User: Fold Endonuclease GajA/Old nuclease/RecF-like AAA domain-containing protein from Methanothermobacter thermautotrophicus.
Amino acid sequence: MKISKILLENFRAFRSSEIDVRNLNVFLGKNDQGKSSILEAMDIFFNDGKGTVKVTDDDLNKMALSGGVSEFAIGIQFENFPDPIIIDETNETSLKKECLLNKQEKLEIWKLFKKGRLSSVQIKCFHPCNDDFLRFMLTKNVNELRAFVDENNIHVEDRRKAAEMRRAIRTHYKERDGSLDLQEVKIPINDGDLKKIWDKIKIYMPVFTLVSADRENLDTDSDFQNPLKNRIKEIFQGEEEILEKLNSVSEKVYSEIMIFAERTIEEFNILMGDKINIKPSIPATSDLKWYNVYKKIGFETEDSIPMNQRGSGFRRLILLASIFARTKEDLNDNVDVVYAIEEPESSLHPSWQKKLADALIELSEKEKYQTFLTSHSPAMIRIFNTSSIKYVEKENGESRVYDFNEDIATKIIETMGLLPNIGKVVVCVEGNNDINFLLNINQNIEELKEIIDLKKEMESGILTIMPMHGGNLKDFIAKHYLKNTNVLEFHLYDKDDGSYFEDIEKVRQRKDGSYGTLTSLREIENYSPPEVLEECFNVKLASEMSSIEDWGEKNIPKLIEEKVKMKESIVKKKICNDCSKKITKDHLMEMGTWNEVKGWFEKIKEMVERCYE
Assistant:
């Protein structure tokens, strides 16, 4: 199950907020704006207020409290939920058939908290509400459903199955009233078959981990302060075979304890001479937390010093190491994992901050992982894609979350004090693939490197290569400032669809020394000769090229995609990142593109030399 939206009502500074989320989410903003509250709300939701964050009366929004509101609510909207659900050996049902999905056909679960404790768990859904019986039908037990079926002479194939009776009852209402009156409602899931459905849904819930900054309201010894504990949770959550064996053992123990407890009560009543209503209090198998068996699991350092007694920087390195470990291991596809990491840059050197950010990005690209971060580090946030960035700001005491756009970008730049890293000459290309292609041929074809060493000039700070369609915040910052500088710009774009022709013309007409050109071939990938790509992708391409001119106009990535069953975007990345390293001067000369390519680097050299003068 993947989180698609976080919903907050009267929680701390959030009165009513809906936050759309992705696999990677980075919350930015000044201190005390509500960033951490979002991550802590998730911890309260997944752990019922008994996890790393403990629910208190202070979590209720002050304005709501003064208005007579006594509880706050946290909702999570999920996608990729299990369907169908088998709630026992003979009763299979579907969330959609039971009308338990919201208008967007997502699973939306709400948890309400009152006086510092969980008061209710509800599902918000688009549900039939023709009358009160239909509205609350999911809370009815089998006997109540059977009585309604008998009273209304409704035919049901198997009256032992609640799901079948509910299906027949809904059909009865539809035929009687002409349609089902669907309304958005919140249904409590503590009673009836719905509790059985909820117990099944919980099995598929993501394993959630909050890595917090040290503050007084947090239990700093729990959860991901020790990454091994979280791994244990994932194992128990995702391995049904293990759980079945453990539950079998538990049920055997439970049965024996109950027999002994009942005998004890009998003997107690004999001794008392009067029957007193007492009963055993034994946790149900479903309530047991098997990972607590491994409560002492963790790391120890020199002289058996526990991890929580080491410095915060040392503990953060363990976090970094564990993230690296997760990116390299074969992941369990049976369980979803959510990391919520507050200020991951805390106590880390800037070089480690960048490595951690790269690792988190890589991890979030894996199917079963979602990551939520707060950050203040300019070194880190430059790396993240703008689509992952959300800005949190408090206005008149109320926190709000904004998706990234140009106006929000300006606020982020001003708030975070971000400055661009741009040289006196900026090479503007379409995307990161183009950057890698240019750098690779420049570094691996000696004749081009002799004209100008791009890496050397970049390291000196005089040259920058920037993707104009780059999604990273650092690229946006650079473009934001670029128009206000007097840097020289070299623009190189693909001619494939002609969309950049006007842009190139505008650059050429500036009269400030900037220059722009389109590729003579269809796009940058066409400068890779067939023999290089044949070796790189292990395919045959010679038959596809009747002439050099023909090769120059083909959609090369699409052609290869069809042959190797690899996504076109992945093919492009591989051509520019890997295959381009094998291109030689002879290849370019045979293709008739040597003078053109050489001309790109000669023009860049001319611009750089002007700046040195």
About this structure: The chain is about 40% helix and 20% strand. The first strand starts at residue 2 and ends at 11. The longest helix spans residues 240-272. The CA atoms of residues 408 and 414 lie 10 Å apart.
